[in-house]
Design brief:
The chain has six helices and ten strands; from the N terminus they run E-H-E-E-E-H-E-H-E-E-E-H-E-E-H-H. By secondary structure, it is α/β, with parallel strands linked by helices. A five-stranded parallel sheet has the order 5-4-6-9-10, sandwiched between helices. Strands 1-3-2 form a three-stranded antiparallel sheet. A hairpin with a 2-residue loop joins strand 7 and strand 8.
Length: about 210
């Protein structure tokens, strides 16, 4: 898709113009499959977007107040690590990105669709990943399988119980929603240290 905006009164934008929310949204939806050209008379986007076969399924999510037992401090340095974020709720994805960037993590994404996540995994070097298990009605199991084959550690993000995880990944690390910043950073630290088995025990036990 080509998207062109033209205004004779608008000067050419400098190349270092800071990205705003709209640009972040476009890049997240397309999996960075978008190119922006700043012209003298406006701007032009070239977008490549995978259209889903079905209308996005509406999901109801019960967010319960939980107290997780994640350690408060990280044990593995996160500075400079490249972490993929795949989350279909863009606001949550951007919140995760902000948490990670504050810890000097290089965020890949956030991707909001299975297609976008697949594209990022294929072309970006990744140290670890945080995956939403349900991506607009599509399961994130495919992404988990690809990461497992590449020996990239990952944790699932979910507001549901462990029983909703794919059978192959029932013991996978899991971060409950809603989450706190220290939960995310501690879980990521465990992933990168190879202590994924510890992270699996950090989800609150169901009564």
């Amino acid at each position: 898709m080509s998207w062109v905006e033209v205004s004779g009164k608008k000067p050419k934008l400098p190349a270092e113009t800071k990205s705003g929310f709209g640009t972040t949204l476009i890049q997240a939806v397309t999996g960075n499959g978008a190119e922006l050209e700043n012209r003298v008379d406006g701007i032009a986007w070239q977008l490549a977007i995978n259209l889903p076969a079905e209308t996005r399924m509406q999901r109801s999510r019960t967010l319960q107040s939980r107290q997780a037992t994640l350690p408060e401090s990280a044990h593995t340095p996160l500075d400079g690590k490249r972490v993929l974020v795949v989350e279909d709720e863009l606001v949550i994805g951007l919140e995760l990105a902000a948490i990670l960037k504050a810890a000097n993590v290089q965020v890949i994404g956030p991707a909001v669709t299975l297609f976008a996540g697949r594209a990022l995994i294929a072309k970006e070097p990744i140290d670890a990943a945080l995956l939403d298990i349900n991506l607009g009605g599509e399961r994130g199991e495919e992404l988990a399988q690809g990461l497992a084959r590449a020996n990239v550690p990952f944790a699932f993000l979910t507001g549901y119980g462990r029983e909703t995880l794919p059978p192959r990944f029932q013991a996978a690390p899991m971060i409950p929603k809603p989450f706190r910043a220290e939960q995310v950073l501690a879980a990521l630290s465990h992933l990168l240290s190879g202590s994924a088995h510890t992270v699996t025990q950090l989800h609150p036990k169901r009564r």
